Amino acid sequence: MPHEVKMPQLGMTQDSGVIVAWLKAAGDAVAEGDALFEVETDKATMEVEAATAGWLAGVRKGEGDDVPVGDVIALIVDSESEVADHANAEAEAEAEAPDQTPNEAEQAEETPDGAAPHAPEPAPASKAPAPMPSAGKVLASPKARRIALEKGIDLAALRAQGVKEPIHAEDLSQVVTGGHSVLTAAVSGTALDALLASSDNANRAALFASFARGAWRVLFDAETGVAIRALDGTTTMTGEDSAALTLVDLCDTRLTAYAPAGGGSTLTTARQGDGYALTLAFSEDALPMPLAIALLDDIAARVENPIRQLL
Amino acid sequence: MREITLSQAVNEAIAEEMRRDETVFLIGEDVAEAGTPFKVLSGLVEEFGTNRVIDTPIAEPGFMGIAVGAAMTGARPIVDLMFGDFLYLVMDQLCNQAAKTHYMSGGKLSVPLVLRTNLGATRRSAAQHSQSLQALVAHIPGLKVAMPSSAYEAKGLMKTAIRDDNPVVIFEDKLMYQDKAPVPEEEFLIPFGEANILREGNDVTLIGTSSMRQVCEKAAELLEADGISAEVMDPRTIVPLDEDTLLASARKTSRVIVVDEGHQSYGVTAEIAARINEKAFYHLDAPVIRMGAMDVPVPFSPALEDLTVPTPEGVAANARKLMSGEMIHAA
User: Fold this and answer.
1) What is the domain range of residue B27?
2) What are the chain B neighbours of A166 within 8 Å (beta carbons)?
3) DSSP secondary structure of B279-303
4) pTM higher than 0.80, yes or no?
């Protein structure tokens, strides 16, 4: 039975830890007490030791990842031969658990020969230059927040598009008057349907959201959250705390598209014949057309060929 | 309209009220023969005599106590406190007695008293004769606080203060006594709790008390050259405070700088800024900026003293920061 290596709680108020460095690679033999990786909390950097002897396998978090306390980071298996098994199992588990972030999916792409975990691969050279949004709470004036609330403008999306913080009322004026542009993609559903059918607890909306986050990361070289607006009106955040994109999954209805009032970018997914229709409603002031096209095209490609999500 | 100095305006106001109401009398150091060190009260003793213009020994707690008792028993004293810095000497008479008597007597007694004093640095008078202590008395329930910003306000607010049935403290800026402003010949009063909009603007609100009103007006001129439209407001009385007018301006411009010559920490600017934050928060596009005197004893060195007080250039610089949208953590 493999031993699960989890993010330890090293402080009373610690919610997560950042993996600073891996000291062992997948496939390495470890003895009980060997230092596996260094973790940084808000107070200090500490080494985490192996609780049991065996072989390190199925490493699913890389250096720089901020991992919630208790999340499984890797496994320690009983024999060297199991290392390769778990490398494969990781990829499958990833596809069946689409609510994990795309970053985790990348990390799961472990080669069977036990190569060391690697940093996310560089974004394609064609990537449009985009400013790097800062993480966390968006800094905006009270007036800007009020206007954003009234108009349904997503401040995090503005920041993602390079509006300088703190965001002021003036920064919103163009967005307010911008209105929405709409792009639609029609994609084959064969591969996605097969993936969804392969698991009892697959969550289609979460899978779409992870595709969107993956495409966003490739395009902007930055993480974003995706807010999933369910049909009952409730909203669930996936990924980062602030969402540049809202997802509305209409696949269980006869509806085909949803155009939101106000600002922000919204991805709508709907059935279309045997495939899917993906609609991206966006404000061109916040998300210029070439970027919107690249974003939706990448999401569409991931839907048609979910393995892309893992690459 | 004729222009008179702030000094003449105060003199006129007191003379008019003393003619109107014979229970009004003046008491303080050097008020009669000397007419105060600033010559504000010159000529009054000749008209009203030494029974109504009373020179006292150098004994602030004594004459302040006399005045409180006189006010409780039917007179309307105007106490002249030569420097605002001497407020510390009359704190018990003013804050424990005058401010609380009406309340503690169940409304049976009132204290219709005016404490006339001054504020303002840059007169090279050093740390014990240069303070602006309006925040000290504005903190005490039961005291009204007027801060005239020109000869016009000095006259209108003084007359209202003398007619008020409760204790009022008036702070005149000792550097403004020779400043002239248009003042009508005919009688007028300025009601308490009515702010004055001196200049309309859309980009930033500058709220200035007493002589800081002039600082704000000059800053507004500097800003106009940059294409920034500043609104300038003078609260005229800080107790009662005309919140509605100040808040309306804050909602309009979304940016506010409050300027008062008291020390910045725990001061008048902080109170006004806090009220704007509480009541116009969702209209603000930038933090409300306080500008007061530096938190140091006022230096005697002229070069240093001039550094401790808000200037038009400083106000304008902060206004430009607010307009530029840069991150502001402190003024």
Assistant:
1) 3-182
2) 325, 327
3) HHGGG-SSPPEEEEE-SSPPPSSHH
4) no
In this predicted model, which residue has the larger pLDDT, A201 or A107?
Answer: A201
Spatial contact of A247 and A209, defined as CB atoms under 8 Å apart: yes
Closest CA to A224 of A163, A302, A176, A159: A159
pLDDT at B109 over 60: yes
Active-site annotation holder among B17, B60, B153, B305: B60
> Do residues A97 and A55 share a domain?
yes
* Per-residue confidence band for A134, with pLDDT thresholds at 50, 70 and 90: low
CATH number assigned to the domain comprising residue B146: 3.40.50.970
Q: What is the pLDDT of residue B222?
A: 98
A302 and A166 in a common domain:
yes
In this structure, are A157 and A87 located in the same domain? no
By residue range, what is the domain housing residue A30?
Answer: 3-108
Cα A255–A258–A262 angle (5° rounding)?
Answer: 165
Q: For residue B129, indicate whether it is catalytic.
A: yes
Among candidate residues B17, B29, B102, B129, the one labeled active-site is B129
Q: Chain B residue closest to A149 (CA)?
A: B282
Mean residue pLDDT of chain A comes to 78
Q: Tens digits of per-residue pLDDT, B320-329?
A: 999 987 777 6
Its sign, for the CA torsion A8, A11, A15, A17, is: negative
pLDDT in tens, A206-259: 889 999 999 999 898 888 888 888 888 778 888 877 788 889 899 988 887 776
Using CA coordinates, name the residue in chain A closest to B254. Answer: A143
Residues of B with CB under 8 A from a CB of A: 254, 281-286, 325, 327
**A27 touches A113 (CB < 8 A):** yes
- Give the residue from B285, B289, B327, B329 with the most A CB atoms within 10 Å of its CB, the best one to mutate: B285
Cα(B223)–Cα(A142) distance, rounded to whole angstroms?
24
User: Are residues B24 and B152 both part of a single domain?
Assistant: yes
Chain A CB contacts of B283 under 8 Å are 142-143, 146
pLDDT of A103 reads 46
